[in-house]
Amino acid sequence: MRRAAAALLLCLAAGAAQAHKPSDSYLALAVDGAAVRGQWDIALRDLEYAVGLDADGDGAITWGELRAKRTVVEAYAFSRLSVVADGNACALKPADFLVDEHSDGSYAVLRFGADCGARPAASIEIGYSLLFDLDPTHRGLVRFERDGAAQTGVLAPERPRLAFRAGEASRLAQFFDYLREGIWHIWIGFDHILFIVSLLLPSVLILRNRAWQAAERFRDAFWDVFKVVTSFTVAHSVTLSLAALAVVSLPSRLVESTIALSVLLAALNNLMPVVSERRWAVAFAFGLIHGFGFASVLTDLGLPQGALLLALVGFNLGVETGQLAIVCAFLPVAYALRGTWLYARLVLGGGSALIALLAALWLAERAFDLKLL
């Protein structure tokens, strides 16, 4: 019992150092005949960690400081990227050096060309090792375009190479690419996970006389979880689609701050119950905001114009698949421990307090642009 409770608490504390998502870079390659063009967006915070950009140490990276380190940045980045066409290495040639804003901060934009020979290549392979030695959670999100068709992929320490071949950009392949992206991004979206967990923690309990007591039947706990998860799913699916299609747009700071606030309120509600029977309504209301958070990732990754619906459905189903895996891992353990002191005090009480503290720090960081964690 103690081991199970400790494992559950470790799950609650996972990602305590991350404000929203781990490190990502965005690599886009476009093939037009024999010409290969690329754009690589790398977060300034990652480059500061890797090579140092903040010359005066004031905590703010200016365009002047970034531009002064252009040679260093390009040397560092391109030494960790390779493009191979039909088995032959391509020479990477830096072009424009810019800066852009993503949903989670400022990024250096490295545009480049790849000299892969005079003939169109049937196969393009990307080798990637950026930041893998410094941050094992780092991922390179790749968008590959050829003849108007787009493919996506994720580069990771365990998968540092991706190959794209002519004629392989089928709609089914694109669907599974975005499905995989959705699964990955719910698992690294620690604020989304902790919001769900905060709502699930009391699902194996019943509030009586302002005190939590163990639920008598698994069926009751299951249906409570079902209502919470379904409400959250429906809500964020709606706003994810609207935001990804640019129908509705909200400022990223407002979205991220409200997401942190939702985690804080859900955790505090476990400690001082205000809403006990209609937590599904809370899940739905805040799920609308969480959908905008998911959409920011999908927007940064890019939507293929020829398969918008497939990409949206695939990404959303991926999010739900990852979410379902979390619920399936959580519910049996929580139900088994529900009547113990360990669950009431350590998991529900201690876990909710830890989540509330972390969410309060996230809220301060996001609302006031601070660096606390």
Rg from Cα: 22 Å
The domain tally reads 2
Helix content: 40-55%
Low-confidence stretches: 11-20
The computed structural class is: alpha+beta
Biggest sheet: strand arrangement: 5-6-2-1-8-9
Q: Count of helices? A: 11
User: What order do the SSEs take from the amino end to the carboxyl end, as H and E?
Assistant: HEEHHHEEEEEEEEHHEEHHHHH
Tell me what portion of residues adopts beta-strand conformation.
Answer: 15-25%
Question: What is the residue-averaged pLDDT?
Answer: 87
Give the biggest beta sheet: 6 strands, mixed
What is the secondary structure topology, with strand pairs?
Layout: H1 2-13, E1 24-32, E2 35-43, H2 44-50, H3 63-68, H4 70-78, E3 81-85, E4 88-89, E5 91-102, E6 105-115, E7 123-128, E8 139-146, E9 149-155, E10 161-165, H5 171-187, H6 190-200, E11 205-208, E12 211-214, H7 218-244, H8 252-271, H9 279-301, H10 308-337, H11 341-368
Parallel strand pairs: 1-8
Antiparallel strand pairs: 1-2, 2-6, 3-4, 3-7, 5-6, 7-10, 8-9, 11-12
Structure characterization notes:
The protein folds into 2 domains: 2-19 and 189-368; 24-169, no CATH class. The chain is built from 11 helices and 12 strands. It is globular and about 75 Å long. Strands 5-6-2-1-8-9 form a 6-stranded mixed β-sheet. It has a 4-stranded antiparallel β-sheet with strand order 4-3-7-10, with no helix packed on it. It starts with a helix and ends in a 5-residue tail after the last helix. Helix 6 packs parallel to helix 8 (252-271) and helix 7 (218-244) packs antiparallel against helix 10. It is 51% helix and 22% strand.
